[in-house]
Design a protein that fits this description.
Elements: E1 6-7, E2 13-14, H1 20-23, H2 28-47, E3 52-54, E4 69-71, E5 81-85, H3 96-99, H4 105-117, E6 126-130
Parallel strand pairs: 5-6
Antiparallel strand pairs: 1-2, 3-4, 4-5
The structure holds zinc ion.
Length: 131
């Protein structure tokens, strides 16, 4: 089904390509994609007999939010693996100028922002960002 251009309830316009839903701040799909990816990671680790928890209590990055997950046993060199998932929309208005001139620009920008948020936890964990 091809969507008809209309105004989203967030106030932005939606075109016939329907890309707005990927980055809409009120889209429920963003949260389900994010939690589905995290659940796949946690279940994959469990299959490999590595217990892990999602949104662990007691760990906070620089903005006060919790990471998406952490292994409960050491991953490497006695250090647990900490991960965070980011779903970037390369067509979002905030990224479109950079992504039209450089492949991976949105992912690079998101990675840099996440690494800054995890600077306070970086030395205690192996940090893995998934985009
Ligand atoms: Zn919207």
């Amino acid at each position: 089904m091809i969507p008809k251009p209309h105004r989203c309830h967030c106030g932005d316009s939606v075109d016939t390509y329907g890309h707005h839903g990927l980055s809409c701040s009120t889209s429920a799909g963003r949260f389900s994609r994010h939690s589905t990816i995290n659940d796949i990671i946690r279940r994959s680790l469990a299959t490999a007999h590595v217990p892990a928890v999602l949104e662990p209590n007691g760990l906070a990055r620089s903005d006060g939010k919790r990471p998406d997950g952490v292994t409960l046993i050491p991953w490497r060199l006695g250090t647990s693996l900490l991960w965070d998932v980011t779903c970037v929309d390369t067509l979002a208005a905030s990224h479109i100028q950079a992504t039209t001139s450089m492949v991976g620009a949105a992912a690079t920008s998101a990675e840099q922002a996440k690494r800054r948020k995890y600077e306070n936890l970086d030395s205690s964990f192996i940090f893995c960002l998934l985009e």
